[in-house]
Amino acid sequence: MPALCIDTPTGRFEIIETEGAITRATWTDSAARDDTPLLNRAAAQVAAYFDGTLTEFDLPFRVEASPFQQQVCAQIAAIPFGETTTYGEIAKTLNAPPQAVGRGCGGNPIPLFIPCHRVLGTNGLGGFSGGTGVETKVALLRHEKAGGLLI
Fold first, then answer.
1. Given Cys at both, which of 8, 18, 49, 74 links 23, Cβ 3.0 to 4.6 Å?
2. Catalytic residue among 5, 73, 105, 116
3. If you write DSSP's letter for every residue of 33-92 in order, what string do you get?
4. pLDDT of residue 136
5. Residue-level pLDDT at 110
6. What's the rounded Cα separation, in Å, for the pair 135 and 138?
7. Cβ pair 50, 65 in contact under 8 A
8. Rg value, the chain, Cα
């Protein structure tokens, strides 16, 4: 699988492509340097996101996971830039327990692109499995000027 690791303000970020779609992304320091049109486009969009000129990614994504995980990721993907929702609100939409939604958020295979950082707990930030954890979530929310009452 082609992969590309890039520098971002929140740390090194690896993007993985499978058969013409972005299927994984994670904060990690790897030597991945594959040069494909899709990975280059994804890297350019990540740079534009962080420089404030892009608020919505326009890339092909594929969530390779259970049907429930795919439903959670679809709900997360619909949260606009600069806005937030809660695990509980997504749980109501999916008729599922908030804890299951939390696990679904934690299992998001394409963080940043599918913005699980925009999902908060009822009484606080909730967790974050990417980057340095909650610190990365806070940095992304600050970048988007979202969740202002919390950060």
1. 18
2. 116
3. B---HHHHHHHHHHHHHHTTS-SS--S-B---S-HHHHHHHHHHHTSPTT--EEHHHHHH
4. 94
5. 97
6. 5
7. no
8. 15
Residues of the chain with pLDDT under 50: 151
CA 78 to chain centroid, in Å, comes to: 12
Q: 43-52: which pairs have CB atoms within 8 A and are 24 or more residues apart?
A: 43/4, 43/6, 43/15, 46/6, 46/8, 46/13, 46/15, 46/112, 47/6, 49/112, 50/8, 50/9, 50/143
Strand partners, 24: 16
Question: Is 5 a residue of the active site?
Answer: no
Do 69 and 37 meet the contact criterion of CB atoms below 8 Å apart? no
Torsion, Cα of 55, 58, 64, 68 (10° steps): 50
Residues in CB range of 141: below 8 A, 6 or more apart: 84, 117, 118, 147, 150, 151
